Amino acid sequence: MGSRDVVEETEMRGWRKIRDQLSHVARIPRRWMGHPDLRSLRRQVDHLQQDVEQLLFRLHPELVASESILVQEGVRNLYEARGYSQNGEDGVLLHLLSEVGVVQHRIVEIGCGCGDECNSALLSCCFGWHGLLFDRDSEQVNKAQQFFHDKGVGDRVRVVHQEVQPDGIDQLLEGEDGDSELDVLSIDVDGYDFWIWKNLAVIQPRVVVIEVNASYGPSVSRTVPWSPGDAHHDPYRHHIRGWHHGASLRAMEALGRSKGY
């Protein structure tokens, strides 16, 4: 080995040492943060612990100190709980149903997605409900069908590939569920949610779960326009971040009151 080879080998060892040191430094924040899968698992465990704490709190109110009640009510919604829902919607829905009562144990969901985070999942998988679900995305429909099949409730849950339009909602539900009282209607289509509910006349669900567009704020009564024959609403056509969809909370509240809710 010549002198030049020795110099090059020495330089390579120097670069390897620097590279190893940089790699070691880069691993420090990753070790501190943990693996992404582990972080996700920790979040799930934390959510489950919160749900258990809230459940125990509700089951034994006689044991709660008076000052703790104020703290609990001020910090979190005690009825929130995650079964399959993305956030705490499952617990809130169960609480509402326990208040208003259930007749047919049936739910219709418009915009169910892949099924594993929809409002029908807990009621169908754990409480034996029958469900009629719609989604316009064929891939999502296939995933939802597989999800409910794997859960062993495919005979009680029917997932339909169809885009539900406001001017067709009555005919759709009259043919499917018009002979029975509907306990829950869930609407989440990122578009004409307001108009789908507004045009529904053949049945009056006991509970309606519907998405609102929070970007409108709490004081404005507003919804995206719709007229018969409109194609699928594209929320990104009028807003770069896709906020042009649905209706504000105040608009939904006014619509609900006009329907007797």
What's a concise summary of this model?
Helices cover 49% and strands 9% of the residues. The chain is an alpha/beta fold.
Sequence-ordered SSE layout with sheet pairings:
Elements lengths: L2 H31 L2 H24 L6 H10 L13 H12 L5 E5 L9 H8 L2 E6 L2 H13 L6 E5 L7 H9 L6 E4 L5 H7 L7 E4 L24 H4 L10 H10 L3
Parallel strand pairs: 1-2, 1-4, 2-3, 4-5
Tell me the strand order in the biggest sheet: 3-2-1-4-5
Class from helix and strand fractions: alpha/beta
Spell the H/E element sequence: HHHHEHEHEHEHEHH
Strand content: 5-15%
Would you kindly provide a written description of the structure presented here, covering whatever features stand out?
This protein is α/β, with parallel strands linked by helices. It has helices spanning 3-33, 36-59, 66-75, 89-100, 120-127, 138-150, 169-177, 193-199, 235-238, 249-258; strands at 106-110, 130-135, 157-161, 184-187, 207-210. A 5-stranded parallel beta sheet has the order 3-2-1-4-5, sandwiched between helices. Helix 8 links the parallel strand 4 and strand 5 (207-210). The longest helix is centred in the first third of the chain and has 31 residues, at 3-33. It is globular and about 75 Å long. The termini are far apart. The mean pLDDT is 83.
List keywords for this structure.
5 strands; alpha/beta; five-stranded parallel sheet; about 260 residues
